[in-house]
Amino acid sequence: MNAPFTPMQEIEIHARAYREALDILTERATVLNDELEAAKRKSMKGLRNAAAAVTKTGDDLRALIDSRRDLFAKPKSVVFSGVRCGLKKGRGSIEWGDDEQVVKRIRKYLPDQFDVLVKTTEKPQKDALGNLSADDLKRIGVTVEGSGDVVFAQDTTSEVDKLVKALIKGATAAAEDEAES
Fold first, then answer.
1. What is the pLDDT of residues 23-59, one digit of tens each?
2. Residue 86 — φ and ψ, nearest 5°?
3. 111 contacts: CB under 8 Å, gap ≥ 6
4. What are the backbone dihedrals phi and psi of residue 79, each rounded to the nearest 5 degrees, phi first?
5. Residue 164: exposed, middle, or buried by beta-carbon count in 10 A (0-12, 13-18, 19+)?
6. CA distance 162 to 170
7. List of E strands, 2-138
8. 75 prior amide bond cis, ω within 30
9. SS3 at position 77
10. Do residues 168 and 25 lie in contact, with contact meaning Cβ atoms separated by under 8 Å?
């Protein structure tokens, strides 16, 4: 009769199973990524050519319309082959050079509208707050979460591809959704 596993041996067995599952997922994700890259390389020239054709024919169409604006007095636009073309009212845009100068002029000439026209942001900076002592953080009302020991299991053999991480996250979310329903 075999002796039961010690708790540490049981953890080791589960870690080995986790490692094997990670390796399978990494291998499958790598194969998928390689296939996607090959498909991209195969299609890229055709995609670039198609994009260039769209740009050229669109430029040609706009130039032709611009040269014959008289045809678009009324109606201002028409649809041919699913393409609406013609003239439309421009949206216009506002621009300025120096933010500081515009803010000064708003403060001087439009003080009653300052709060509406100028965005003022006051927000604590998380990175800077992280450099403060626990006493200082407590004094200003900031609490530190999760600073004790936390359970973890992570891959140490290599930097797992982003796709693998996304797949794990997606699978975890899907499992949580199923558990909730």
1. 898 899 899 989 999 998 998 888 889 989 999 999 9
2. 145, -140
3. none
4. -120, 125
5. buried
6. 12
7. 77-80, 83-86
8. yes
9. strand
10. yes
pLDDT digits (tens, 9 = 90+) for 78-136: 999 999 999 998 877 788 888 899 999 999 999 999 889 998 888 888 888 888 888 88
Q: Which residues make Cβ contacts (< 8 Å) with residue 87, sequence separation at least 6?
A: 65, 69, 72, 76, 77
The CA angle 173-176-179, to the nearest 5 degrees, is 155
The reply to whether the predicted model has a pTM over 0.85 is no
**Contact call for residues 61 and 54 (beta carbons, < 8 A):** no
In one-letter notation, the amino acid at residue 69 is R
